Amino acid sequence: MKKMTIITFCLTLFAINSYAQVSGSEKRYLRVGSLQSHFSAYGSERAWTGAYYEGLRWPAQYPYQDNSVIKRAWVACRDFEDEEGVDFSRYAVYFYLGDEGISLFPMEIKESAKFANPNIYVDGEDLTSIFANEIDTLDENQIPDRIITNVVNTSMGLTQTRTVLAYSQQYHDNYFIKIYTFTNTGNIDWDADIELTDSLRGVRMGWGTRYSMGRETASYTEGSQSYGKHSWVTRRGETYADHHLDAITVADPIKDWIRAGFSFLGQSNLLTWDNIGAPDVNGSGRLVSPHHTGSAILHVDVSASDSSDNINQPTFLGWHAGDTYPGVGFQRVEDIPGMTAVYSMLSGNPHGGASNGGTDRMDDRLTSITHRLDPWTIHGDGGGTNVMMTYGPFDLAHGESVVIIEAEGVSGLNRQASEEIGARWQQAYQDPSDSGPFDLPDGSTTTDKDEYKNSWVYTGKDSIMLTFSRALRNFDNGFDIPRAPQPPTSFNVESGGDRISLSWLASPSESDPDFAGYRIFRAIGKPDTTHEEIFACGIGTDHPVIDYYFDDTTPVRGHAYYYYIVAFNDGSNNQTEMNPKGSLHSGRFYTQTTKSAVLKRKAGNDLESIRVVPNPFNIRRSGTKLDYLGENNKLMFLDIPGQCIIRIYTERGDLVKTIDHTDGSGDEEWREMTDFRQTVVSGVYLAHFELPDGRSTYRKFLIIR
Predict the structure, then answer these.
(1) CA of 113: how far to CAs of 8, 31, 146, 327, 428, in Å?
(2) 607-704 sits in which CATH class?
(3) Of 473, 499, 559, 592, which sits 20 to 30 A from 656 (CA to CA)?
(4) What are the tens digits of pLDDT across the range 432-471?
(5) Across-strand partners of 597?
(6) How far is CA 322 from CA 43, 231, 251, 253, 625, in A?
(7) Buried b (16+ CB within 10 A) or exposed e, 319-338
(8) For the chain, what are the domain ranges?
(9) pTM (predicted TM-score)
C-alpha cells in the first residue's frame, strides 16, 4: 500500500481531534470481535488490575481468556539537547504510567464507532448500558467498526500517536491493526507551546511484549503462568526481503515470510505431566491454553522523506528475557548510562548480553515435539520471555514523522477441538496402557499421547500466521475489507410461560443490494458455551420472508437460555482474495445476551403443589442433562405463589438463606449459597414458604456433596 494512502487515512482521523490533557490511567475498550482488549492513555499497556492480568481476551465469549501481561515500550535518540540546554549523548523515554507528568504527557484517548451499539434487552433489563461511555464519537464514514486514537507527548519532543483499528467481520475479528505515527513536534509537556525545534537524530523505538496465553491457565498449572513465566517466543519473516512482493491468496494464505513474533505456552519444570496446551488433568482434560499470541509488522517507513516499506526493518525481531531491561531514571545527566543502555537495546543488542535475547526461533531449541524444556530456564529470568521488536534509526527534522504499522492478534484451536483433544489425551494419561492410536493433524497416527496433543496444539502456529496474513491483506487493501452487514439496531428477549419471545429492529444494511436476512443462535445453561442456530429468515433459508420476531417454543422449564442475532448478506461483495468467499455476517458480540431468559409458569395457587427440583440434589450430576445443563449448584422451587418469602433452614433449625420472591411467577432458583455467600454442605434442609396473607408451608429436601 502506498504511503500517501496511510497519511490520508491518518490525517482524516486526526483532523477531527483537538488535543487536551487526559489522565494516563484513562482507558478505552474494544469489544466488537472475538479478540477484545483495553488501551491506556499513557501510550502502552500493563495488564495488571491489582488482582489479575487482563487484556487481549480471546475467544472473548469465554471467561478468563486474557493473554496480556505487559508491553514495555521505549523511544530514544542520540545527541539530544533539552529545553535547558543540557546535552545528552543518549536520551530515552520509557512508557510507564508512573512517569506521567515527568517524561510522558497523555494528550488524548478517544474511540469512534461506525455505528452505535444495538439496544439489547432481556426481560426489560438494558444490557448495553454498561458500554454507554465507551464511544466518544460516531462516524458512519469510517471503515473499521471501532477506532481508538491515542496521543502522547514526551520530554524528548517526540509525539506518539497510536491509531488502533478493530473489525467484527468474521475473518478479521481476532486482530487489531496499530498505526504508530512518531512526530518531532517539539512539545515536551501538556500545553500547546513548542519548546524544542531542533532535529531529533538517530531516533529508535521498540517494545518488549510479554504474553501469558490465558489467564485461566495459571489455575491449571502451578500459578506462575499468570505472568508468563513459561511462555515460548518464536518468530517468522527471516526471508521477508525476498518475498515481500509475493501475492497472498485464499488458497495459499499462510506465509512464513511475514515479519512476526508470537508466544505460546511451554513446559513447566514443576509439573509431572506434559504441559503443552495446559490440559485440565483433574477435570475434563480440556486444553486450557491453545492460544498463540503475538504481533506482525505490516509496514515501516524507510525515512521521513521515503514512504516506502523498509524491507530491512525491524532492527531487532526476536525474544528477550522478561524482566531484564535497563532503567531511564528521571532523564538527568546522571541517568545517561541507563539511557545509553536503552539505546543499545533498541539498536539490537539484548540487554545483559546474548544469553538474554536473540533473533532465533527460540522454540527451535526443542529437540522433539515432546521435549520437556522449560523456556524460562534458557535465560534464567523468572519473569518469562518477551516478544521483542525494535525500529530505527530515523532522523526527524522538526515537524517530520515516520509511520510504523503492526497487527496484534490471537489464534489457536477452537473450544470444541480443545475439549475433544484434551479429553482423549486425559483418557490415556489416566490409563498408562492406552497407546491409541491417536490421529495427528497430517492424517497419520501415533501411539504417543503427548505427541498427539502437542501436534494439535502446535497447529496454532499456522493459525496465528493465517491471522497475520489476513491483517496484511487488509493493510494492502487500504484497511477496506469486504464489509459485513450491520446488526439489528435492537434485540429484545422476553421470558414467557410457554415460550421465550425474540424480536428485533431492522439492520441499517437492509437497504444494501446484498442483504440476505437474519440468523438467531442459542446457548443453554450459560453464555460461555456453544451457541447453535435455531432460526433463520431471508434468502437461502427455510423461511425466505424476512421477519422481526421469533417465538422459541422449545425451552425446558428451569433451564437458562442465552441468545444472539446476526444479520447476513449473500456474499456477492466477498469475491476477492481478502478472505474465504461466501456470506458475511455481523458480529455476535453486538447482540449476545449475558442475562438468562427462562420459561416462567404462572404462579401456583395451591400450596400443596410446591416442588423442590431436583430432590435430592447430587453434586455429581449437577450441571448435567440430568439436572440443569451448564448450571452447577442450582435448585428450583416450582409452582410457588407469585409473591412469597422463602426461608431455608438446616435440619437443626439454623436459617441459612432468605429469598424475597416478588416477580409474580411460579418459579424461583437457589444456587445453594447462604446469605453469607458460603456454599451449603451436605444435609437435610427445610424450605419455608410464607405468603403475604400469613399462610405458609414447608418442603424438605436433601443435598448431597
Answers:
(1) 19, 11, 5, 38, 49
(2) mainly beta
(3) 559
(4) 999 999 999 999 999 999 999 999 999 999 999 999 999 9
(5) 561
(6) 20, 10, 38, 32, 46
(7) bbbbebbbebbebeeebbeb
(8) 3-412+459-472, 490-590, 607-704
(9) 0.88
